[in-house]
Amino acid sequence: MPLDPDSVLNDVLNIVKVHNKWRRLETINLIPSENVMSPLAEYVYLNDMEGRYAEGTLGSRYYQGTKYIDKLEGLLANLMGELFHAKFVDVRPISGTIANAAVYAALTQPGDTIMSVPLNSGGVI
To answer: For strand 56-57 and strand 60-61, is the pairing parallel, antiparallel, or unpaired?
Structure first.
C-alpha cells in the first residue's frame, strides 16, 4: 500500500515537535554546539537571509539581492563599534577554522604552545 503524503508530512512534523519539546523543556543540553537558541535568536537566524550568499562587502557584493543584508550588517557593525569602542568592525560570519586561525595569528607568535580541550571533552578539531 503506498504511503499517504499527508500522513508522512504529519508524522515528520509531529516528530520534530516532540523532539523540540524534549530538547527545550525536558533535557539539559551539555554539548555547547547542541544548546538551544532563544526564540528571538532562532527567529533572527531562521529566515531567508540564512541561506543567501552575501560575499563581498557592504554595497559591493558578488551576488544581487543583498540590500537588506547590507542594511543589517551596517546596523550591526555600527552597534558593535559603539559598544566596543572599535573603529573597524566586521560582523560577517566566518567558519570556525578561519576564526581560530585569526585568533592564533593575532594572539600568538611562531613556536608558541597552544592548549586545546580534547574532542571527547567538548573541544574542536
So the answer is: antiparallel
Q: How many CA atoms are closer than 13 Å to the CA of 82, on its beta-carbon side?
A: 6
- Report yes or no: 51 and 63 within 8 Å, Cβ to Cβ: no
| Residue linked to cell 586545546 | 116
Query: pLDDT of 108-125, one tens digit each?
Result: 999 999 887 777 777 665
> Within 10 Å of residue 54's Cβ, how many Cβ atoms?
19
Distance of CA 32 to the CA centre of its chain: 13
Q: Using one digit for the tens of pLDDT, what is the confidence trace for 39-91?
A: 898 888 888 888 888 888 888 888 889 999 999 999 999 999 999 999 999 88
Round to whole Å and give the CA distance between 24 and 37: 9
The residues near 105 (Cβ < 8 Å, ≥ 6 apart) are: none
Q: How many CB atoms lie within 10 A of CB 5?
A: 8
